[in-house]
Write a structure and sequence with these properties.
The chain is of the alpha+beta class and 570 residues long. It has 17 helices and 20 strands. The longest helix is centred in the C-terminal third of the chain and has 20 residues. The two termini are 39 Å apart.
């Protein structure tokens, strides 16, 4: 797990200038110095480095934690050395719910902060230097899409998300708080533009096992190096390094910080075995046909639902009970394959097998939805990239080319015969980003019709809306896994799917499923039931994942709309 900021490297236009400021005024010890770089040691566990660069520099925002009991005396000393920035009301000290802070700037324009929290337990970490620095608490990371960035950091780096809004959130690991903000938001207190600075963060982590987990989820193109200096990769334009340190694993608890540790192991109700069993059932079911891949897909959805989301115990128990119920009807699909050596090159075959499903809408996107669940699991467990498992998933992806229900959409006898060149998608513009895709997919649930017979034919009106949700989630996951171009390729299919899903009989337009105002995806009544349909697991997982990309003020209504679908599950 991530425990702290072990290092931060910034650019500067003057080595001598930063030396005069950080050593001469803040009294940070100099650990090393050359003509092009200087390294300070504010605490024994953190280094602050500056590399000289002949280029314009966007200022960074960083915050140092200092003892609350000493804050007033420390700030008096600081004010004698550097000008403190004022708020619009003329005050320099801000008092917030759990503490106090002040802001000031260095010679390069970097926005610095001393912050103290009254609930932080003192005596755990020793204060360092003239200003009693305990640790580097915050580093600002301005990005264009903060919702997507913080979700990526949560899933890939195991960080906890706190105080989130559309333009702001903390991504927390141990004492390290990455401030993930929109580039459209300005830094307080002086309304300074939040430009993306050229910086390199070094996270301290606990062990090699955690590094292996991060490696397995990173696209190889993101990795810069992987050696004794740690795992170095690029993230949303930033340079990130992770290295194993001896910083205390339980530091968050000892300091009385909010729970911000990645190390929450998979709940015993949903163990790591679910991933292995899900891949096996996905493959064995896929050998029978794409539709039979749903059971393995539900197992994988259950595994990732508990891994990526903070779920109540009754939801976890409901997930496990429903997985076992599905398994009892298809026990043979869970029979492990004979042991085989993993073959990493098989990943390329899976990507090639996915391509036809991204260029052609078939089976409501199941060739993408189920395959991406398998791809994601194999990225996490490359040791399971075995020929037997890959063979079944490839078969699962091939089957959607043969459509089983041609009259899938109302008013169209055979949608596979549609001339796509003549179909306008102008009412469904291209998606701007993951957040836009998530919001627009979920907004389709405002009007949900139950599945029913119309004019002698049975239409899955609600079922097709379910597929619009799971398909959207799969495309976002594909981009998160590093396959942005493939995800972009599949978005036209999803837009077409949304257009076709809107086809409904005029006589039924005044009908629609209604749910209580307090309806929730994690309602214990829902998870206390047993379902025959694997979508009862797959849809909640996809929907909860999509809701994380939605601005907070819209989530409640959109979650209620998802519950319209869930109320129809059988």
């Amino acid at each position: 797990m991530i425990t702290h900021f072990a290092g931060l490297k910034l650019k500067t236009v003057s080595i001598q200038g930063v030396k005069q400021f950080y050593n001469g005024l803040l009294h940070f010890p100099v650990a090393s110095e050359s003509e092009v770089e200087i390294v300070f040691q504010p605490t024994p566990d953190f280094t602050l480095a500056f590399e000289e660069a002949y280029e314009p520099i966007a200022p960074a925002h960083i915050a140092f934690e200092v003892p609350y009991s000493q804050f007033e005396s420390l700030i008096q000393k600081l004010a004698e050395q550097v000008p403190l920035l004022k708020w619009p009301d003329g005050e320099v000290v801000e008092r917030f719910e759990s503490g106090v802070n002040v802001y000031f700037k260095d010679g390069d324009g970097n926005l610095l902060e001393f912050i103290a929290h009254d609930d932080l337990k003192e005596g755990v970490l020793a204060p360092n230097g003239t200003y009693g620095v305990l640790y580097l608490r915050e580093v600002g990371l301005p990005v264009e899409d903060p919702i997507a960035a913080r979700l990526w950091m949560k899933r890939t780096l195991g960080l906890t998300i706190a105080k989130e809004s559309e333009q702001f959130a903390f991504a927390i690991g141990g004492t390290a708080h990455a401030v993930v903000v929109s580039t459209k938001r300005k830094w307080i207190p002086i309304s300074m533009y939040a430009l993306a600075p050229p910086l390199e963060i070094t996270y301290g982590v606990t062990d090699e096992r955690f590094l292996d987990r991060v490696r397995s989820t990173l696209d190889r193109r993101m990795i810069v190096s992987d050696n004794e200096d740690g795992l170095h990769f690029r993230m949303y334009g930033y340079s990130i390094r992770m290295k194993i340190t001896s910083f205390p694993k339980d530091i968050a608890a000892r300091l009385n910080l909010p729970s911000a540790i990645e190390g929450k192991e998979v709940n015993s109700v949903i163990s790591d075995r679910y991933l292995e069993d899900g891949l096996t059932a996905l493959s064995r079911g896929g050998e029978v046909g794409w539709f039979e891949g749903h059971v393995g897909g539900a197992y994988l959805a259950a595994y990732y639902m508990q891994k990526e989301l903070d779920l109540p115990q009754d939801v976890l128990q409901g997930l496990a009970a429903n997985c076992l119920h599905l398994r009892s009807q298809h026990e043979d699909w869970f029979e492990p394959y004979p042991p085989e050596p993993a073959q990493p090159e098989l990943m390329n075959q899976l990507i090639e097998g996915l391509l036809p499903n991204l260029t052609n809408l078939s089976t409501s996107g199941h060739g993408v939805t189920l395959a991406v669940l398998g791809l994601k699991a194999l990225r996490d467990r490359p040791d399971l990239l075995m020929p037997s498992i890959v063979r079944g998933i490839l078969k699962l992806m091939e089957d959607p080319a043969v459509e089983h229900k041609l009259a899938r959409y109302y008013g169209i006898e055979d949608y596979t015969q549609l001339d796509l060149a003549e179909i306008s998608l102008s009412e469904i513009p291209p998606y701007r980003d993951a957040s836009d895709l998530a919001c627009r997919a979920l907004s389709e649930l405002e009007h949900v019709l139950p599945d029913q017979h119309v004019e002698g034919k049975y239409y899955f009106f609600a079922g097709e809306l379910e597929h619009g949700i799971t398909h959207a989630h799969a495309l976002i996951e594909l981009e998160r896994l590093g396959y942005a171009q493939l995800a972009k390729l599949g978005q036209s299919n999803h837009r077409l799917q949304m257009k076709l899903n809107r086809l409904k009989p005029q006589a039924l337009l005044n009908q629609g499923v209604q749910v209580p105002e307090e309806a929730s995806i994690t309602d214990s009544a829902y998870w206390g039931k047993r379902y025959e349909d694997p979508h009862a697991i797959k849809v909640p997982y996809a929907a909860l994942a999509l809701l994380q990309y939605v601005p907070p003020e819209q989530r409640e209504n959109m979650e209620r709309d998802v519950c319209k679908l869930l109320s129809l599950m059988k």
